[in-house]
Amino acid sequence: MQYHIATYGCQMNEYDSLLIAKMMESQGCTATDDPAQADFLIFNTCSVREKAEETAIARISKMKCYKEANPNVRIVVVGCMAKNLGESLMKKRRIIDFVIGPDQYNKIPEILFSRPVIPTKGNRKYRVLTDFDSEENYLGQSAKLLSPFSTHVTIQRGCNKHCSYCIVPYVRGPEKYRETADVLREIKEAADKGVSEITLLGQTVNAYKSGNDTFATLLNKVSEISGIQRIRFVSPHPKYYTPDLIEVLLGNAKVATSAHIPLQSGSDAMLKKMRRQHTVDEFLRIVEKLRGANPLYGLSTDIISGFVGETEADFEKTLEMVREIQFDSAFMFIYSPREGTESAKEQEILSAEQKWERQARLVELQNEITLQRNQLMLGRNEEILVERPSSKNPEEWVGKTNNFKKVVFKPVGEIHPGDYLVCNIDDIRGWTLRGTPIAQ
Ligand code: SAH
Ligand code: SF4
Ligand code: F3S
């Protein structure tokens, strides 16, 4: 039997898809990229913005032809939209057989393989499993590797923050942390298979605590695992960039020299309304420490344009902050009211066009800054983690610097994904850096 998984949303969903993939394979199922070949079509969905849900629903609807061709095909919707829409999802799209929320994935093998479930209207209750489970941390389990040299490991699930615009706490439930020993076990297993780059995941990943461990001590422990060379993490919250964490970020050579710090807005009034629990000034202090120690420290961020109540003056403050900080990259989103969240109760004044227009101004500014930040890399010798041949030109390969910049280069001699090599960054085309490997 074959399964096909399509994943939407954040890296936490990517990790969960790999966890589910492992469960499917433990039942003797193999992965296929081709939905036409699959016995199980699994959709791991996101609800963060309306568009994310619409995209997944449109894709799921397209599966009707496979179900018609073979009625034994099972369509399984998992992830945040499964939790958010629950049974109503089945009513919306009758081709869906199972709706399974993020704390119920351990039931997938039983549901799909042990019991010969003939999905009927009558057993709908059994087909919709979306309850939260405060105990479920997938203890002792490991996800399939993302790649032979780099993988994600979730260390925290759920979120306690309740930012006023955000649906995540409602679809992922309250925060829970994996035990340090379990995290280290999964990473060690990955390292033993050749993985050298680890990305630790959680919605407020740097709030991590377990026993006597904090995120800072966990980073140090991960760095001691033989074979681990680069450690990254998403998504941290500005509130938890504590002095001891910053010390580890700057002092531990295995922790990559780039970080994500979600700004959301450059206006204190908006940050307060968003319930972000940090001010513009506190955010700037973190940036100062990291960039003060290393001007090439890579910084990425998330920004929402057109939040409910955002004035032109508020938005200009965001542009000002972006200009001042010079992020290397930014994920920029148009505010999308999500039912059930606090800010969705407030009537929007901005039209869709006005929100788009703000977003376009922000994107234009960030594009200029990204180019300038990349230009600063010219002339440097940088260690690259080799990823893959370039899709545009198979003679060229693509890798990433420690501060998370993509570099395209022509290899000299044999090369493999997962190799580390030093390149001289000697050109830039568009935004993309180009390098020449140097003999060592
Ligand atoms: N836990 C992370 C973010 C998770 S969601 C954090 O706190 O940074 C990823 C990003 O989606 C958020 O940072 C935010 O910028 C964006 N986002 C969340 N809800 C949104 C909404 N309702 N409309 C637009 N963007 C949203
Ligand atoms: Fe959403 Fe805020 Fe939690 Fe991030 S910290 S997941 S934005 S509620
Ligand atoms: Fe989306 Fe769920 Fe992640 S709502 S952003 S997939 S936690």
Main features:
single chain; 440 residues; alpha/beta; Rossmann fold; pyruvate-formate lyase- activating enzyme; OB fold (Dihydrolipoamide Acetyltransferase, E2P); 3 domains; six-stranded parallel beta sheet; five-stranded mixed β-barrel; 34% helix; globular; binds S-adenosyl-L-homocysteine; binds iron/sulfur cluster; binds FE3-S4 cluster
Could you explain the architecture of this structure?
This protein has helices at 11-26, 50-61, 64-69, 80-85, 87-92, 108-114, 124-127, 168-172, 180-192, 215-223, 243-251, 268-273, 280-293, 312-325, 352-375; strands spanning 2-7, 30-31, 40-45, 74-79, 98-100, 128-129, 150-154, 156-157, 176-177, 197-201, 209-210, 213-214, 230-234, 258-260, 298-305, 329-334, 381-389, 397-401, 406-409, 420-429, 432-437. With 440 residues, it is α/β, with parallel strands linked by helices. It starts with a strand and ends with a strand. FE3-S4 cluster binds at residues 9-10, 12-13, 46-48, 79-80, 168, 171-172.
Q: Could you give a short description of this structure?
A:
The chain has 440 residues and is α/β, with parallel strands linked by helices. It has helices spanning 11-26, 50-61, 64-69, 80-85, 87-92, 108-114, 124-127, 168-172, 180-192, 215-223, 243-251, 268-273, 280-293, 312-325, 352-375, and strands at residues 2-7, 30-31, 40-45, 74-79, 98-100, 128-129, 150-154, 156-157, 176-177, 197-201, 209-210, 213-214, 230-234, 258-260, 298-305, 329-334, 381-389, 397-401, 406-409, 420-429, 432-437.
